[in-house]
């Protein structure tokens, strides 16, 4: 039985155990394409085929090797996961609306998708973050002793065709799923919240990237999902923490966080969110003389 909480812990401690020697890193492109096609066929037919251990092992190989693969293959693999997840959500919705069917049978498949998204997106976005850091470092060039390289590494969103668009699709599907009565899918609130927490953490990480934060469609999908979390799944205090941290540390998110609070207030009954954010900001103390951006960002 797949346990999402335990697998997420193993991901933090290192690479989870995969029961296959297959790797996408360095494999012939023909073999890689054929493998992804086979996996795609299985998930398109039935999203729950992810529960097959041999299939899941290959999918974990994809998540593990994202940073080492051809960008076009990464795009194909991410599309495969999003499509399979979408199919699984449709099955969950059908089961929930049909008397006599047990919706808890879908929990394991959903948890497996969440785990793969956590691994693959985190790996890809971490690579993007490292690329942005490397790009910001000055490099000495012949004839320009203090110059900065103009050909720094690109982000994942720029290198992988359709990466940002597929993440947008993912959050549209997550929002649709969270509007269903998920309390009937998982046997306990902690299990349900572990699943939801994966996508909230990925949302927080996505907002760190200015390329995502400035995209109106992406922002709408992300913010709507966060508001559903607030409204249906007791996400108030976690969302307050996320907003105030973003205000303190990311200048490009100042206006966006105000828009998130406004959306929650106008369309999701989020009066308490606005009150708690203002209360949290009022209680903050910016005592460090080196912390110049925090007060300025918060004031904006």
Structural account:
With 300 residues, this protein is mainly alpha-helical. Helix content is 68%, strand content 0%. The longest helix has 30 residues, at 107-136. Mean pLDDT is 86; it is low at 131-152. The chain is globular. The chain is built from 14 helices and no strands.
Helical proportion, percent range: 55-70%
State Rg.
21 Å
Strand residues, percent: under 5%
The best one-word shape is globular
What's the number of helices? 14
Which residues form runs of ≥5 with pLDDT under 50?
A: 131-152
Say how many strands there are: 0
Average predicted local confidence, pLDDT: 86
Structural class: mainly alpha
The largest pleated sheet is described as: none
Question: What's the short story on this structure?
Answer:
By secondary structure, this protein is mainly α. Helix content is 68%, strand content 0%.
Topology:
Elements: H1 4-13, H2 29-45, H3 53-65, H4 71-96, H5 107-136, H6 156-159, H7 163-178, H8 189-207, H9 210-213, H10 216-232, H11 236-249, H12 254-267, H13 271-283, H14 293-299
């Amino acid at each position: 039985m797949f346990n999402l909480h335990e697998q997420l812990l193993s991901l933090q401690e290192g690479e989870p155990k995969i029961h296959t020697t297959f790797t996408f890193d360095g494999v012939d492109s023909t073999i890689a394409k054929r493998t992804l096609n086979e996996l795609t066929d299985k998930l398109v037919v039935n999203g729950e085929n992810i529960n097959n251990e041999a299939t899941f092992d290959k999918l974990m190989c994809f998540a593990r090797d994202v940073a080492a693969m051809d960008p076009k293959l990464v795009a194909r693999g991410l599309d495969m996961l999003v499509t399979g997840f979408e199919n699984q959500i449709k099955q969950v919705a059908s089961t929930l609306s049909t008397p006599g069917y047990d919706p808890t049978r879908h929990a394991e498949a959903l948890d497996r998708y969440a785990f793969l998204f956590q691994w693959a997106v985190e790996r890809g976005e971490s690579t993007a973050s490292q690329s942005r850091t490397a790009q910001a470092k000055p490099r000495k060039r012949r004839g320009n002793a203090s110059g900065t390289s103009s050909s720094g590494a690109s982000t994942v969103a720029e290198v992988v065709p359709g990466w940002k668009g597929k993440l947008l699709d993912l959050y549209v599907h997550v929002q649709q799923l969270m509007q269903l009565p998920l309390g009937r899918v998982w046997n306990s609130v902690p299990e349900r919240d572990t699943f939801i927490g994966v996508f909230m953490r990925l949302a927080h990480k996505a907002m760190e990237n200015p390329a995502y934060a400035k995209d109106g469609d992406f922002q709408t999908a992300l913010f709507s999902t966060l508001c559903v979390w607030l409204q249906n799944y007791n996400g108030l205090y976690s969302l307050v923490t996320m907003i105030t941290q973003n205000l303190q540390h990311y200048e490009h998110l100042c206006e966006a966080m105000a828009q998130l609070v406004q959306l929650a207030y106008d369309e999701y009954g989020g009066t308490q969110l606005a009150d708690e954010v203002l209360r949290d900001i009022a209680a903050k103390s910016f005592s460090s003389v080196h912390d110049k951006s925090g007060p300025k960002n918060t004031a904006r």
